[in-house]
Amino acid sequence: MNRGLVLDLFAGPGGWSYAASVLGVRDIGLEWDPWACQTRAAAGLLTIRTDVAMYPVRPFAGKTWGLIASPPCQAWSMAGKRLGLLDKPLVHQAVADFAAGRDTRAHLLTACRDERSLLAAEPMRYLHALHQAGQPEWVLMEEVPDVLPLWRQYAAILRSWGFSAWTGILNAADYGVPQTRRRAILIASRVRTAVPPEPTHAAVPEPESLFGPGRRRWVSMAQALGWGATDRPVPTVCAGGGPGGGPEPFPSGSRKTLTDARDRGTWKSHPAPADLALRSRRDGLGWAQHGSRDNRPANAPAPTFSAEAHRWSWSLRSNNQTNATVRSSDEPAGTLFFGHRANECLWVAEPRLDTTASSEQDPGGVPDPIRITAVEAGVLQSFPAGFPWAGNKGQQFSQIGNAVPPRLAAHLLAPHLGATFNRDDFTLAS
């Protein structure tokens, strides 16, 4: 059967696309951001660089099997000014107009507080045009939680066109992503009942029963970053920097990174794997194959190692505001988002409760906070450590924060792609 195209609107660096490739399908991503397009090209993902709002639907009519959409969320997100919330009536009107075959964007934009708000209505323009040809067969959409009422409007329209549709909030941590990222999801299908994927993980692990294996404990940052699951992470604080992709968007001074030393007193380099892989293992020792989290070239001298590094436990702090989310490394990260304060997502140290060393043995005191690296942030978003992020660090952080976690995307995609998906082990074949 010729299944046709899978069209990915606002494709970003490739969260949906990478997951689809893992499951054996290549989609076509429409994306405007040049750095995201460069990342996609380096990852071998098919891309049309274009403004989704300006691109015609006609080339895809009669050829599209599935439609994916994750419109930009800056106007709606908790991380932004949230002007999109003031534009909600206009966005709902645009969706209703598109569903009736009317393009009223020029009129509605004059009243919008944020010109990006109407981008959340663009998928309906595509859906209406494709529906005339009896397509697509399935639809998957993702956005920040505040957009759930809009997804419900989409679902009501899709049901009137013969789709089964489901909307709700899913937590990425429930699907093996080392981050408690909550997202509004729309699932629709013409050929099967739309239901959310069964969670595989939980805050409190469940025992095996007569009905099968229980859910595993949420994947922690330490597990995902390869710090080990049974013993505490033993990080080192290293000064100096490696080659960046462009200007450093952080305050001046020595760049610091967080690396691990499994053997105290020894630092080891972990080169990125030749084949990018995501893996969930039953032994609980971490699902990702990780490369080095340090930017140094392979032939660079090893960084200095502090013999006192094992005395500290590490947490990730989302920013320096009083209400910042702070998570211990043995927990999943909070929702990662990066804007002009990307430099404020920091690893912070505190003395381990079980240490017996005295303060006199460590005259340097508690280590300074350490900025998260783009590679670490990508891994916590469930990308492989070797994913080829393009651009300078600020541009990389922006791509990561806006991307759909590939592992969550794979759970959503698998039933519609007809893919054989072992939810305990998902790898990209070489």
From TrEMBL:
One Pfam family recorded for the sequence: DNA_methylase
Ranges for region Disordered: 240-271, 286-306
EC number: 2.1.1.37
Keyword Methyltransferase on entry: yes
Name of the protein: DNA (cytosine-5-)-methyltransferase
Keywords for the protein's UniProt record, in alphabetical order: Methyltransferase, Restriction system, S-adenosyl-L-methionine, Transferase
UniProt superkingdom: Bacteria
GO BP annotations listed: DNA restriction-modification system; methylation
InterPro entries assigned to the protein according to its UniProt record, in alphabetical order: C5-Methyltransferase, C5_MeTfrase, SAM-dependent_MTases_sf
GO molecular function term, any single one: DNA (cytosine-5-)-methyltransferase activity
Similarity remark: Belongs to the class I-like SAM-binding methyltransferase superfamily. C5-methyltransferase family.
Name of the top EC class for this enzyme: transferase
UniProt-listed PROSITE patterns: SAM_MT_C5
Feature: compositional bias, Basic and acidic residues: 257-266
Active site: C73
